[in-house]
Amino acid sequence: xxxxxxxxxxxxxxxxxxxxxxxxxxxxxxxxxxxxxxxxxxxxxxxxxxxxxxxxxxxxxxxxxxxxxxxxxxxxxxxxxxxxxxxxxxxxxxxxxxxxxxxxxxxxxxxxxxxxxxxxxxxxxxxxxxxxxxxxxxxxxxxxxxxxxxxxxxxxxxxxxxxxxxxxxxxxxxxxxxxxxxxxxxxxxxxxxxxxxxxxxxxxxxxxxxxxxxxxxxxxxxxxx
Length: 225
Ligand code: ATP
Ligand code: ZN
Hints:
Elements: E1 7-12, H1 18-27, E2 40-42, E3 48-53, H2 58-63, E4 69-73, H3 74-86, E5 93-98, E6 104-111, E7 126-129, H4 132-141, E8 147-150, E9 166-171, H5 175-179, E10 182-191, E11 193-198, H6 204-224
Parallel strand pairs: 1-3, 1-4, 7-8, 7-9
Antiparallel strand pairs: 2-3, 4-11, 5-11, 6-9, 6-10
Bound molecules: adenosine-5'-triphosphate and zinc ion.
């Protein structure tokens, strides 16, 4: 059974945020043994448990109050927020701070040889994405109707495979787009990793630990600037 007095932190198990999330916690002085392929890792020197999961699960774990803190990309957080609101929920959490890694942008891209004269060129088109809510929020504001094709991977091959006319996907250098004959035409969301805390009552000792960690994180980030 879970020890409620220990601070539970969720981070990505393996992927683009995992190494830097782990490094950040270690630089804050948390001694964790993450060698094993375990879901839970226990800090040796502080009352902290680290839960390592898929990044997509982290916003929900925090919103459901299953973990106290999460390290997550704003893109995934915002998408889950919009997703839950669309289902009539009122998800709650606090953003403790934006972090200095995981930078990327969610962009629209079209085949290299397709003409593009602004977002209106996408009127009535089919767009492949893993972020249907962020995409809809953006295009709704511009009053552009579109059809979406939800793909949770290999989004960039959708136009070539005849599944969609355009894509809306995460980009950092643009090399993947280029390799797939696509060009980035519009940035719809800029993201970084961030630290979030669950809503609701927090035992004083746990909150004091969170506050101490935040001061250390501030120091770690400042030292890197
Ligand atoms: P998981 O197996 O945990 O679901 P994933 O494949 O969905 O992993 P990653 O590719 O590891 O996710 O990306 C995790 C996060 O890293 C993204 O949601 C985003 O916030 C950030 N990120 C930074 N740069 C990039 C990039 N170039 N492409 C994709 N994500 C990036
Ligand atoms: Zn994921």
